[in-house]
């Protein structure tokens, strides 16, 4: 598959350089991150189990360039195909040995690889679930600072929180995972254009707004906030979305969303040493996502919040969103650098939209994106169960 090939592979000297810093200074950085993340978790009296992965992710985002990350990780599309194959094989093995559960049979029945290329020829939709037999849908945007491809944890989360919620209620939920172009190859607003194309694609397939939930984590939460903006204020560069018969989209969720380019909020300094992200990492990712900030700055000056809705008057920007969306769910950890900005975002939507049911959840024991870490461990943890409960409340 042509798109799975890397467009700009590391040259030989870049690979040698990567190997050299991985084997030397990075060892020290990783150890230091482990000490601070886990150490702060102990000091703050919270369970430490997820803080090891937190430290590792912060090391990767802080020490590796986007191209190095993309060199070391499989592309979104190839990871998806591999995940489908291993998930099916594991279910098949259990069924063959007589230890199969109803979940295993459900996976074998409904989970097949299916990828649909979107009109720009670069983005695609990767299905978790069988869209032909589905009555409810989720459009999912994965996080990773716009520089990292999807991880297994995202796909596990989609299976556990959405597909299995449908299974429980006797309806099939299919998740359309957007494979968007990563930065720095593509920057804002390319991913918004691709997300709008994906949404238009679903509507063309006959998906009704009231049967659809949209959302994502971190940078994917940013993309969800961009789509919220785009529904209300069509972005000049992206395809305009019209909802048929004035029907509203059932729900939009944003897990630990990245909704501001600021790095000076209180939560940034409070949590710089415990979270998976740090102000320095955010500065770098701002640059990867927004490039020279020219478009972002021009829009912000006009009080337009497509790129980062917490950097304008969020309530004023989203006033009227209730015509397009029924419910909004924002979840964030107390231990996150994004805590304050996520709260500003959710409260802004709530302030001007009495007709939207806004659920804002702040969890003391969590840092950034713990639902992803639960998915990475293939477990239905607290964040996964809370997401599933919210989806059940939206659809059933
Ligand atoms: C698709 O990606 C290629 C490589 O990044 C780029 O040159 C091209 O303009 C993209 N196509 C569209 C329609 O954006």
For the structure shown, list the relevant keywords.
396 residues; alpha/beta; Rossmann fold; 8-stranded mixed β-sheet; 16 helices; 12% strand; binds 2-acetamido-2-deoxy-beta-D-glucopyranose; membrane; transmembrane
Q: Could you characterize the architecture of this molecule?
A:
The protein is α/β, with parallel strands linked by helices and 396 residues long. The chain has one domain (75-395): 3-Layer(aba) Sandwich (Rossmann fold). It is 49% helix and 12% strand. The protein contains 16 helices and eight strands. It has helices spanning 12-23, 25-43, 51-63, 66-72, 76-96, 102-110, 152-168, 190-204, 219-232, 266-271, 279-290, 294-301, 314-318, 339-352, 370-376, 382-395; strands spanning 115-117, 124-128, 136-141, 173-179, 212-217, 251-255, 327-333, 357-363. An eight-stranded mixed sheet has the order 1-2-4-3-5-6-7-8, sandwiched between helices. Helix 7 packs across helix 15 (370-376). The longest helix has 21 residues, at 76-96. The radius of gyration is 20 Å and the shape is globular. Bound molecules: 2-acetamido-2-deoxy-beta-D-glucopyranose. The site of 2-acetamido-2-deoxy-beta-D-glucopyranose (NAG) has 4 residues, from loops.
Summed up, what is this model?
The chain has helices at residues 12-23, 25-43, 51-63, 66-72, 76-96, 102-110, 152-168, 190-204, 219-232, 266-271, 279-290, 294-301, 314-318, 339-352, 370-376, 382-395, and strands spanning 115-117, 124-128, 136-141, 173-179, 212-217, 251-255, 327-333, 357-363. The protein has one domain: Rossmann fold (3-Layer(aba) Sandwich).
């Amino acid at each position: 598959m042509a798109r799975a090939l890397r467009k700009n592979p590391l040259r030989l000297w870049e690979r040698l350089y990567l190997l050299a810093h991985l084997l030397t200074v990075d060892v020290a950085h990783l150890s230091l991150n482990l000490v601070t993340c886990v150490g702060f978790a102990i000091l703050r009296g919270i369970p430490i189990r997820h803080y090891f992965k937190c430290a590792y992710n912060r090391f990767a985002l802080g020490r590796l360039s986007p191209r190095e990350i993309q060199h070391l990780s499989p592309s979104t599309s190839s990871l998806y195909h591999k995940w489908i194959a291993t998930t099916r094989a594991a279910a098949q093995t259990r069924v063959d040995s007589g230890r199969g559960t109803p979940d295993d049979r459900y996976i074998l029945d409904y989970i097949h690889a299916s990828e649909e290329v979107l009109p720009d020829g670069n983005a695609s939709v990767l299905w978790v679930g069988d869209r032909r037999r589905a009555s409810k849908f989720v459009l999912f945007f994965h996080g990773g600072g716009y520089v990292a491809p999807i991880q297994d944890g995202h796909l596990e989360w989609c299976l556990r929180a959405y597909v299995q919620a449908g299974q429980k209620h006797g309806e099939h939920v299919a998740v359309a995972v957007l494979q968007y172009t990563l930065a720095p190859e593509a920057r804002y607003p390319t991913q918004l254009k691709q997300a709008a194309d994906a949404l238009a694609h679903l509507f063309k397939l006959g998906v009704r707004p009231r049967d659809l939930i949209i959302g994502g984590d971190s940078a994917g939460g940013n993309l969800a906030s961009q789509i919220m903006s785009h529904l209300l204020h069509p972005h000049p560069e992206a395809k305009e979305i019209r909802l048929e018969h004035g029907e509203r989209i059932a729900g939009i969720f944003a897990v630990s969303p990245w909704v501001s380019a600021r790095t000076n909020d209180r939560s940034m300094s409070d949590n710089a040493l415990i979270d998976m992200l740090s102000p320095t990492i955010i500065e770098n990712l701002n640059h990867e996502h927004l490039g020279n900030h020219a478009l972002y700055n021009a829009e912000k000056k006009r009080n337009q919040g497509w790129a980062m809705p917490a950097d304008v008057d969020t309530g004023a920007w989203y006033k009227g969103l209730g015509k397009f969306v029924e419910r909004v769910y924002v979840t964030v950890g107390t231990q996150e650098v994004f805590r304050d900005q996520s709260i500003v975002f959710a409260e802004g939507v709530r302030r001007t939209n009495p007709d939207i049911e806004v659920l804002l959840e702040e969890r003391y024991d969590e840092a950034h994106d713990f639902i992803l870490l639960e998915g990475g461990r293939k477990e239905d943890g607290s964040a996964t169960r809370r997401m599933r409960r919210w989806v059940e409340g939206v659809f059933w």
